Structures
1.
Amino acid sequence: MKRTWRFWLALWAGKGISGILQLLGKKGTTLPGKIALSIEPQLIGVLSVGFNDGIIMVTGTNGKTTTTNLLAQILKAAGKTFAFNQAGANLVTGITGAMLANTGWGGQAQVKMALLEVDEATVPKFCQQVVPQVAIITNFFRDQLDRYGELDTTIKLVQDALPKETHLILNADDPLVAQFGLGSLHTLYYGVERTADSKSVSTETREARFCPRCGEELKYTLYHYGQLGKYACSCGYKRPEPSILAEDIIAGEGGIQFKVEPTSYSMALQGYYNLYNALAALTAAKRLGIKDREIQRGLREFVPQAGRMEQFILANGPITLTLVKNPTGFNQVIQTVLSRKEQPIRLLIGINDLAADGRDISWLWDVDFELLGQEEERIQKIICFGLRAEDMAVRLKYAGVPVNKLHIEHEMSKALDKVQADSEGRETTFILPTYTLLFPMRGILENRQIKKDNGDNSQYQSQRGEGST
């Protein structure tokens, strides 16, 4: 693309605003991009040409941020430098900001590669200007219907937008994702053989009951969670054989271990859904030619990012903070909480209905809170906070959680006090907030922590990617 006077003005304005924000001690993840794009709407297309080793795009409903950060850690272990929207600013403005931060005042890219998390609804706009070398698609679940619309619409938008020359990294266990490989010559699939929670029958909400090719009902021989599992249709559409298959999976409080023949891997993340995030990053790394020992090191040294199974040590005991935003993700978090057998459970659940959270909270009725209702003896207390605290408490009451164990506290600090009051330090304690409550709560936890269980995140940033968002 031609570099016009608009390009230069946009570049210098964006970088200038970014510099000012840094002097003021602000992150500036989106404002530089917003101002630059108002001057030159085609800016990311022009900037993308400078990243000679290509652009890696990560999209999907759940796990985008964790997958992107896992792959970033692997790339760093391999000595790579790259542009990176680490904080998860995944709309066009945040993506532009990350590119600007890694482009010099003379318009030259300062790194050879870009690793970019891209919101599903942003993929069409992004791919109008950029041809990703590699696209990772994690999964598709209903999420914020008031913003995205029906899931079929989102999937079609992404399908239509992806350039044919892009190499796809696809979740074979999700029939909604696997269909992207139909007719593609550049596809690698990843999947899971079986976990301790896999079952032949499932009552969970799942998005893919019907074949994306012919519309007939899919038959499953194994469910992992949601619609993820081993499936087939009479028309011949079925789960593809994964090139990267996780076996011998061991999950516990300390993290997950698994094998992709012949190599064993481990990471500190909890939850089987994070196994899929690791497999997506691992598969992309192999596609990029990263060696097994560097992938092992990257996964082993990975530190959970803000609000993604992030652990804090407070005076009254340890506590885990993790974002919740849709039924499938919430179900997986509940499964992770309950997997700690015999330990008493304390939960602090925060629900807001602001624009970033999704205005429609009816999705709470699709979450399998009944699993909590079946653990009456283990549950000590559940504190509900946020703008829709009362709605959350009502949902838990109907799920069978005893009313005397439900509490409402709108003030965030007091809610944290209540969930840890009289703690013996041996309880399983989780804080589960939606988007707009996540970082305010995280700020309180940081101020109260004795030490941070997962260390200093700054050492894990890419050399050039620091501050890119």
Note: The chain has 16 helices and 18 strands.
2.
Amino acid sequence: MENYNIIIIGAGMAGLCAAVEAVSNNVRVLILEKENEIGGSSLLSGRYMAFANTDLQMQEGIQDSTEMLVNDLLTVGDGANERSLVEAYGQHQLETYQWLIEKGVQFHAVQAVSGHSVPRGHQITPKQAIQTLFDLANSNSNVTFLLNADVKRLRKNNEGKVTEVFYVKDGKEFNAIAEDGVIIASGGFSKSETLLNAFAPQLKGALRIGGKGNVGDGIKLAWEQGAWMRDFPFLKGTYGFHPSADGPRKSQGLVFYKGAIIINAEAKRFVNESISYKLIGTKALEQSDGITYQIWDQAIMKESVPGDALYDFDKLLDLGLIEQANSLSELAQKIDVPEKALLETIQTYNSDVSKGVDQQFGRSTLTHNFGNPTTISEGPFYGMRTTVAMLATYAGIAVDEQARVLNPYNEPIEGLYAAGELVGGFHGAGYMTGSSLGKAAIFGRIAVRTAIQNINTESLFVKG
């Protein structure tokens, strides 16, 4: 049995940020990743991190602030968020953005995405970010990474502190001691039919495209130690995926945040397209056979962003996932919706946009409080069949602003911390794009700081 200061379960964004933070504090760390590669669902993300008042925003003339970011998170979460978690995010967000840059993570551009009052979606390349953080941690002599190491149980010591971790590697059972804390950062449960059927039966029709290891085992580990749950009533799928996304390619396009409308099989709009794609997903699953389409014109098509995971519409067209037509009548035939109904829907929408009032659903922006809708009138015209997917669950165990796991009485479970997707309470009833990777980085670092704050430096373990 080996002893460490900290044991981290999971090597996605949260676990790797925790590992790098631990390196900076000269503590001995073991990272256990049950898959044969690092990254988890972080590699499947939409590539955005939500930060405010950054240099990238200033270069674009974008006026933002921590207060605006926090207010947007609370608004999108419909006030169901744990305010202390959101405020902790706000307190540490700019510092974490600068820390990531210092560590070598590259930010490419800023976009307005779901839930943003101003453009604050800072685009990364997930593989570059994950590999950079891994290389930093793995190069330190105080850090041990074990892949294909499946954690099975946790155990408290005689004083009631979670310290012992049992795991299986290469068919053999091992255990290790974490003197100062166990940090669970093992992702959600988007690939667990058992948990999804138990907590979100309404999402039965959604694609399952999360990381293959996301089966909720980290949540179960915490439950056994007495952890409470948060946000399970708000479980929702993500709208914007082509039905082929359940294969190797996770094809996604959020054209509606650039001005497209969303229709059902009857060619009727059914939702305000500017709201969170989680809320849109709920409405989409209620439509006949779950069939919906995004519809837009050439003016909106020109808003395509090359290389962007959410906004590269030209790539989706090249892949044959978008239908193109010279007229709306021709488009109706290609996507097999009633021609007359589609023409009426577009005519009504265009008339409302021209008047500045969407009488059907109240759309007044492109996304959240940002951007102005435009008419759909410039051919050629485009349509993409779009569906809902379970990419991430955003519900899980209760933590406080110090990343300490809480029991049902809001008391910290000594020695147990959590960060990343398996944490509940942060998002509330909705979801702001970029806040998942953002909270993973922020609370991964916070978890380490909390765990080691009482360490006597003379007792630190250092590899020989």
Note: The CA atoms of residues 272 and 361 lie 5 Å apart.
